[in-house]
Each structure stands twice: as structure tokens, then as C-alpha cells.
């Protein structure tokens, strides 16, 4: 039985990915900042572990408790939408601590065991904001673009040791907890002088033509994990796939 460790499984894409791999008969190590056993089906194949990816101590404890991990999915993330000049730097740092340095720290923690076994897969979940620049998302985009570059480079050295490295790039998922999962209110990040600029953007956000469902991301992570080629990029969801076809064809 193969073991997958997933960060940020208390809601959204991570929770659905944990369900998906459990249904496929995998041993799933579902990690949450505050583990809640009611969120996933009871199963002897499920291990719940506490993990905050911004804490080195939490990472060390979780990796030690996990034992051998065949697949690591770095899914945990937080967002920020707003005018960059109004986004407090302490919040920009918090976004990077989670979305960027948290992912890097998790990779560093799991690579030694995968390198020793000369096998393993690391999937880093970024976003369709890396496929085309979107407005009012500068700090968030930077945190995810950093992981796109990081993963592309890392893939070369890990390939040498039989470890596959993948990027899953989900589109906009209005049904996850992503927009609520922040202590910074969008209204505070749109100063009055930006109101005219922001209004049509928020109107378009409210009525998207294509979106991403949790199941799209879980299925794409499944595809990425089972892909034995050197393919790096896996857009997930109808909007992300359409965007990647436009931008990568250009
Ligand atoms: N929804 C979208 O529109 C969208 C689009 C593109 C990409 N994404 C990316 O997809 C991933 C999942 O997002 P989602 O939409 O499923 O949002 P979500 O429902 O808010 O899930 C995010 C998960 O990350 C966890 N998390 C946050 N900070 C953490 C930390 N420091 N340590 C460990 N876990 C932490 C949250 O746990 P808590 O319950 O403890 O807060 C939650 O389980 C993120 O990387 C996000 O950037 C989302």
C-alpha cells in the first residue's frame, strides 16, 4: 500500500484529495493545523496528524510521526486579494511563510527519506494565477510563482535520485474556504482611490464563466502522482486548463 501525506486537509482541495486517495485504497496521512476526525471517513488507512507548515518544530514532529512517505502533496495555502500598496507587509510575509517557505521546508523535510529509497513524488499546488497575471493578486501571485520556479529547478536534482516532482495549478474554486480563510478583509485592502479600478474586477469574480471544483483538483493530483514522465505542469479545473491552453500555446 502506498502512503500519501497531504498538507491542509481541513477543507477545500486538500480535504477532497484526502478523500480521493482513501477511496483508491491508499494510506492517507491527512494533516491539519487542528486535526478534526469528523471530516474524513473512518478508515484503518487514515492517519490524522497535526501540522502547521509555518512551524519548523511542527514539521519535524509530523515527518517523524509519518514514517515512510511515498507522495507528499503541499496543498496548504492562504490567499490575499487587494491593492498591493494597501497590503500590510506583515501579511505579505505571512502569505510567503505559508505558500512559499512552508512548501520549501516540507520538501527539505521529506527529500532525505525519498532520496535514500530512490523513489517518491512531490506535488506542489500553486494556482492558475501563475499562468496569466491577474489583477489585485500581486503578493499571492509572487508567493505561488516562486514555487513554480523552485519546483522546476528542484525537479532536475530530484530526478537524478528517482524522485518525481510535479506542479498542480488549480483555477478559481468558489466553493472552498479559501476566501474566508484569512484575517485580512478585502475591503481594507481596497482604498477609496482604487474603487473604480476594483469594481469591474470584483463583478467579474462574482460571475465567472468557468470555475474549478474540489474534485477537479483531487483528480488532477491523482493524475500527476501517477504520471511517470517528466511532465511538470498540471493545470486543474476548466478555467485553469483553458488559460493554460491560451498562454502556453502563445
Ligand atoms: N480556491 C481557490 O480559488 C484556489 C485557486 C488556486 C489555487 N488555490 C490553492 O489551493 C490550495 C488549497 O486551497 P483551498 O481553495 O482548498 O482553500 P481552503 O479551503 O482555505 O484550504 C486551505 C487549507 O490550508 C490550510 N492551511 C492554511 N495555513 C496553514 C498552515 N500554516 N499550515 C497548515 N495548513 C494550513 C487550511 O487549514 P486551516 O483550516 O487550519 O486554516 C486549509 O486546510 C492552496 O494552496 C491555495 O493557494 C486555491
Automatic annotation (TrEMBL):
Please indicate which superkingdom the organism of origin belongs to.
Bacteria
Q: Name one GO molecular function term.
A: oxidoreductase activity
One Pfam family this chain carries?
A: adh_short
Q: Which Gene3D superfamilies does this entry report, sorted A to Z?
A: NAD(P)-binding Rossmann-like Domain
CDD domains, per this entry? 17beta-HSD-like_SDR_c
Could you list this entry's UniProt keywords, alphabetically sorted: Oxidoreductase
PANTHER family cross-referenced by the UniProt entry: SHORT CHAIN DEHYDROGENASE (PTHR43976), SHORT-CHAIN DEHYDROGENASE_REDUCTASE FAMILY PROTEIN (PTHR43976:SF16)
Query: What family name appears in the similarity comment?
Result: Belongs to the short-chain dehydrogenases/reductases (SDR) family.
Protein name (record)? NAD(P)-dependent dehydrogenase (Short-subunit alcohol dehydrogenase family)
Amino acid at each position: 500500500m502506498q502512503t500519501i501525506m497531504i498538507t491542509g486537509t481541513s477543507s477545500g482541495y486538500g480535504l477532497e484529495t484526502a478523500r480521493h486517495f482513501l477511496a483508491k485504497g491508499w494510506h492517507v496521512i491527512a494533516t491539519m493545523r487542528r486535526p478534526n476526525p469528523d471530516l474524513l471517513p473512518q478508515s484503518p488507512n487514515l492517519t490524522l496528524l497535526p501540522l502547521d507548515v509555518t512551524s519548523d518544530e511542527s514539521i519535524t514532529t509530523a515527518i517523524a510521526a509519518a514514517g515512510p512517505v511515498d507522495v507528499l502533496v503541499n496543498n496548504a495555502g492562504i490567499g490575499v486579494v487587494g491593492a498591493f500598496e494597501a497590503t500590510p507587509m506583515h501579511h505579505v510575509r505571512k502569505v510567503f511563510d505559508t505558500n512559499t517557505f512552508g512548501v520549501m521546508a516540507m520538501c527539505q523535510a521529506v527529500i532525505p527519506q525519498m532520496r535514500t529509497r530512490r523513489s517518491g513524488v512531490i506535488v506542489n499546488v500553486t494556482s492558475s494565477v501563475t499562468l496569466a497575471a491577474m489583477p489585485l493578486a500581486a503578493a499571492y501571485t509572487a508567493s505561488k510563482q516562486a514555487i513554480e520556479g523552485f519546483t522546476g529547478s528542484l525537479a532536475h536534482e530530484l530526478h537524478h535520485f528517482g524522485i518525481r516532482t510535479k506542479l498542480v495549478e488549480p483555477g478559481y474554486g468558489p466553493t472552498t474556504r479559501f476566501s474566508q480563510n484569512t484575517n485580512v478583509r478585502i475591503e481594507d485592502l481596497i482604498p477609496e482611490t482604487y474603487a473604480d479600478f476594483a469594481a469591474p474586477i470584483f463583478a467579474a469574480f462574482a460571475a465567472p464563466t468557468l470555475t474549478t471544483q474540489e474534485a477537479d483538483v483531487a483528480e488532477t493530483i491523482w493524475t500527476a502522482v501517477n504520471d511517470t514522465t517528466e511532465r511538470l505542469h498540471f493545470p486543474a479545473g476548466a478555467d485553469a486548463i483553458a488559460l493554460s491552453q491560451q498562454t502556453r500555446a502563445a
